[in-house]
TrEMBL record:
The chain crosses the membrane at residues 20-39, 51-70. It catalyses: [protein]-C-terminal S-[(2E,6E)-farnesyl]-L-cysteine methyl ester + H2O = [protein]-C-terminal S-[(2E,6E)-farnesyl]-L-cysteine + methanol + H(+). It comes from the Eukaryota. This is protein-S-isoprenylcysteine alpha-carbonyl methylesterase. Residues 89-304 form the BD-FAE-like domain. Its EC number is 3.1.1.n2. Belongs to the AB hydrolase superfamily. Isoprenylcysteine methylesterase family. Keywords: Hydrolase, Membrane, Transmembrane, Transmembrane helix.
């Protein structure tokens, strides 16, 4: 995989335009296929209408971020981390990165496993980058281009690439945090649990390929994560949002596999000594999240704690599913997500005017031995 370095070479304007047209055509085809799964039910149409209005409302902030994303010298877009479709990532590299030894955040974005894209992490990437943190925002295949196992493979491949390569960009491989939001929280946590289970048992685990060692991580931060897939399916059904789509995404060989793909189920059925290979975990969740019930984070934290893993939950009153990633950052007020991540990295609670509820995520830094 090291030979991938020669794939990250600048494209000519003609090559860039050709790639853009090919990818646009592919996305259009996948969108039509996805729409065929959703059907034309009125509740989905209402949700699409609300999404359009929401995007228009935030458009001024989005335009500023688009300008930053495409013009900032700190953003290295579409770095190739694997040979399969969409195995790309965006790197946000601070100006002082040449000095080396900067902390690193790997961010796995959400998007309901269907509309996830690496650029959704631009707000978080910019804020952390300006604070002296290297951020890698992973892209991964979405449904219907890829299955849940394909997405896990992409996430594992991206994490392994960052652990191997980030030092050349000025990052410290012994100070790497994994952050996952919504669907990305499910994928990132399941990847971590699978790798920890493999390290604990010495046996291959579903969703644990390619291999990387969980001792390389200093901590995990989950944001509005969908860790309880069975509970999420029931929640969607109650809202009339046709859980058949989730059934299809979370299938293996044509069979619905919520248990096998649910981080909650994995945490409730851990192998012996799992905790020895797990970093500390912080789960953040808004109390008014209507997309993923807050119980998802509470149940996972309880299961991790029962397995001996250091875990805590940060409940945020009045916050919705997207507040932490989008509205807080665009609104000009306190950016709770960035502040909490920075508090985890620095070990300080004075990164903002409010105390952080982050657990002690630095306790294992000195003892982290990365095999790469």
């Amino acid at each position: 995989m090291d030979s991938l370095a020669d794939l990250n070479i600048p494209l000519s304007p003609g090559q860039a335009l050709e790639r853009l047209l090919l990818e646009s055509w592919m996305v259009a085809g996948l969108a039509l296929k996805l729409w065929s799964y959703l059907g034309l039910g009125w509740k989905w149409l209402v949700q699409v209408y609300r999404l359009v209005l929401y995007a228009l409302f935030l458009l001024p902030g989005f335009l500023q971020m688009i300008y930053y994303y495409y013009t900032s010298p700190s953003v290295k877009r579409s770095v190739i981390y694997g040979r399969k479709p969409r195995q790309r990532l965006d790197l946000y590299v601070p100006k002082n990165a040449a000095a080396g030894e900067l902390p690193v955040v790997i961010f796995v974005t959400g998007g309901a496993w269907t509309i996830g894209y690496k650029a959704w992490g631009a707000l978080l990437g910019r804020r952390l980058c300006e604070a002296g943190v290297i951020v890698a925002c992973l892209d991964y295949r979405n449904f219907p281009q890829g299955s849940a196992l394909d997405m896990l493979e992409d996430v594992n491949t991206g994490i392994a690439w960052v652990l191997r390569k980030v030092q050349r960009y000025g990052g410290n491989p012994d100070q790497v945090w994994l952050v996952g939001q919504s669907a990305g929280g499910q994928l990132a946590m399941l990847a971590l649990l699978s790798q920890a289970a493999q390290a604990a048992t010495g046996q291959a685990v579903l969703g644990g390929a390619p291999l990387w060692h969980p001792s390389c991580l200093s901590g995990f931060v989950g944001v509005s994560g969908a860790y309880d897939l069975e509970g999420l399916a029931a929640h969607l059904h109650r809202r009339g949002l046709y859980k058949n789509l989730l059934d299809t995404i979370m299938s293996i060989d044509g069979q619905v596999a919520y248990e096998l793909l649910s981080p909650l189920h994995a945490a409730r059925n851990p192998p012996p000594n799992l905790a020895a290979f797990m970093p500390p975990v912080l789960l953040m969740h808004g109390t008014t999240d209507k997309s993923v019930p807050v119980a998802s984070s509470l149940l996972l934290s309880d299961a991790l704690t029962a397995a001996g893993v250091e875990s805590s939950v940060q409940l945020l009153p009045g916050k919705t599913h997207t507040d932490l990633l989008l509205e807080d950052a665009l609104g000009g007020g306190r950016d709770v997500l960035s502040d909490s991540i920075l508090a985890c990295i620095t070990g300080r609670e004075d990164v903002s005017d409010h105390p952080s509820m982050c657990p002690k995520l630095l306790v294992r830094l000195a003892g982290c031995v990365c095999p790469f």
